[in-house]
Design goal:
Number of helices: 0
Strand content: over 45%
Largest sheet: 7 strands, mixed
Structural class: mainly beta
Shape: globular
Radius of gyration: 14 Å
Helix content: under 10%
Amino acid sequence: QVQLVESGGGLVQPGGSLRLSCAASGVRFRLYATAWYRQVRGKQREMVADIRSSGTTNYADFVEGRFTISRDDAMSSVYLQMNNLKPEDTAVYYCRLRRWDIDSTYWGQGTQVTVSS
């Protein structure tokens, strides 16, 4: 049984930082590309950042150098360091694992990030 457990969300003031973690189990993690998405209620889920098993990263334009995605295959985990947070970053953040060769996708349950003074 595959499980993705996210943690690290919470309430932070504008300009603050948070580090999200996503720990996977029941899956050959190193074979999966990993990503963080976010969703505001009533809007479509959007990609924030992704990192391949090769280490190649990709970021959405709105990140503007504020976030860093990383992964630790030994720990079957992916992380999102978020700095200089803005109120518009408020959303539920989800981690995603994806293998295109076998069309396999897994999502975490989501963790709420709220940026407010």
